[in-house]
Structure formats: C-alpha cells, structure tokens
Inverse folding.
C-alpha cells in the first residue's frame, strides 16, 4: 500500500517533535502510569513527542541525545546512579517525576545506618549489597524541573510538557494545599484534630486527599516560605514530639526544611 504524503503542517510538527526518554529507578512505577494515561488522552502529546527510550512501555532503547529525560524513582542501586548520570549527560532538560525522584520518597526516611540494618533484617546478615541509602535525584545531578507528588498530578504533567514544547518556563505552584482545599469548601480536618500537613505542603494536587476526608501527608514536598516551625510547635502540643517528627519525616526527610527543624538528624 502506498503511504500518504505528509502535509506541510505534519512536516512542521514532525521536525519539532520532542525526543523524550523516560527512566525508572527504585520505585513503584505509579508516576509512569499517570504518563501512560495522559498519552491515551492527549492526542497533542502523541503528535509532538517522540518516545525514544521507555523500558516500561516500549521496546525502543535509544541512547540519546534527548530533548527531555524524565526520571522516576530514587537512585539506590549502582545501575540507578549510572542511569541518572547518563540521562543528565545526554539530555537538554531533566525532569523528575514524583516524590521518589524529587525527595527520595518514603524509602529515604531511613538514614545510612538504618538502611544497612534494614537490609540485614530483610535479607539476613550474609547478604551483601552495593545499594546505597535512597536519595533524591538532585543529590547526584542538576535537575531542571520537578513534578511533585506521589503520584504526580496529570494536569501538572500536561502543563509542563506543553511549556517545554512551546519553549516557555513552566510555572511553579506556590501556594499550600490548604488554598485548593478551602476553594473546594472542604471541612478542615486539622480543626477536627487530624494532623494534616496541608498548611506547609506545596499545592498543585487539587487537594485530593482532604477532599476525600484524608489528611495531607505532604507528598508534594514542603512549601517554600511555609511556616514549618509554627506547624511543628502546634503539632507537638497536640500530637507529641515523636509523632510530629514521624509525620514530618515521611516525605520531607531529605529537605532543607526538615534539616532546619531537626538539625541533629543524620
Ligand atoms: S512517587 Fe509515589 S507513585 Fe511515583 S513512583 Fe514513587 S512511590 Fe510510586
Ligand atoms: S484539611 Fe488540611 S489541607 Fe484542608 S484546610 Fe485543613 S489543614 Fe488545610
Ligand atoms: S493532599 Fe497532600 S498527601 Fe494528598 S496528594 Fe496532595 S500533597 Fe499529596
């Protein structure tokens, strides 16, 4: 069968197609599912991007160069660290997908000693591993943009890809989860005695948890300029010191905000 000649518009789009790679490290692959759902919904994304390397979804494993590399997961295994550095070397933009890549994820709450103890407990004393305690991707390389969340928000992902395609700087969400929560007229869980981290957590998730009666755990990361000290004081009075630290540690353990609140924590 004869193939149809491309129109002038199709030729333009093809010449501008973004060459994209998606790498996954140590994680649950939930953020990649958000990307798959987005591709199913957005014809524009399919027309304007060329997925050159995506282990999770395709057989093509091009080695670059790429316009954009998305990295999901926290570098933990030696191979993860190698992939992370290689992605930076061959990409114009590096974008982290989700809290594992941006913040180290829940697995990063373990410090180096706890990590080694944990490995022994799970695999036994004789098991040797070269895996390192999980860290954010930015511990190893410079990152251009972060898409926060566990998992990421589909609308934020679509906006970021559109910004990169149109060569505009993506806008970062600068308000707390509380703003989106109040806009939805939710009953405030904090006022009902729940330790909700919404006041000091970066918004952009459309307040999905409090809108369903669940408190915010802070998966979008600490809000820059948030009054973390005041929230800590308030939480300690209501829920005790240990519980407060545990709550703040879940997603913030590798952040400057957490290290300022707990300077002795290694
Ligand atoms: S951020 Fe959450 S959803 Fe995304 S890969 Fe990590 S654990 Fe999975
Ligand atoms: S429920 Fe949580 S996110 Fe919503 S307004 Fe109260 S503290 Fe903020
Ligand atoms: S409400 Fe909090 S925990 Fe839930 S998705 Fe938003 S930032 Fe994450």
């Amino acid at each position: 069968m004869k193939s149809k000649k491309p129109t002038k518009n199709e030729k333009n789009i093809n010449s501008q197609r973004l060459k994209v790679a998606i790498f996954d490290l140590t994680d649950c692959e939930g953020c990649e599912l958000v990307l798959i759902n987005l591709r199913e919904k957005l014809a524009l994304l399919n027309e304007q991007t060329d997925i050159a390397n995506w282990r999770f979804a395709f057989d093509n494993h091009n080695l670059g160069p790429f316009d954009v590399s998305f990295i999901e997961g926290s570098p933990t295994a030696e191979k993860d660290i190698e992939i992370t550095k290689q992605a930076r070397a061959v990409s114009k933009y590096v974008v982290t997908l989700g809290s594992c890549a941006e913040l180290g994820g829940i697995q990063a709450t373990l410090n180096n000693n706890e990590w080694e103890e944990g490995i022994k407990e799970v695999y036994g004393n004789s098991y040797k591993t070269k895996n390192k305690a999980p860290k954010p991707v930015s511990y190893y390389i410079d990152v251009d943009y972060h898409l926060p969340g566990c998992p990421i928000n589909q609308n934020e992902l679509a906006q970021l890809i559109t910004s990169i395609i149109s060569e505009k700087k993506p806008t970062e969400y600068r308000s707390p989860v509380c703003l989106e929560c109040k806009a939805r007229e939710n009953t405030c869980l904090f006022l009902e005695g729940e330790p909700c981290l919404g006041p000091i957590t970066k918004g952009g998730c459309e307040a999905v948890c409090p809108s369903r009666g669940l408190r915010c755990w802070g998966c979008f990361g600490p809000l820059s300029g948030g009054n973390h000290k005041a929230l800590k004081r308030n939480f300690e009075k209501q829920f005790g010191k240990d519980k407060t630290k545990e709550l703040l540690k879940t997603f913030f353990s590798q952040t400057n905000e957490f290290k300022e609140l707990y300077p002795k924590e290694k």
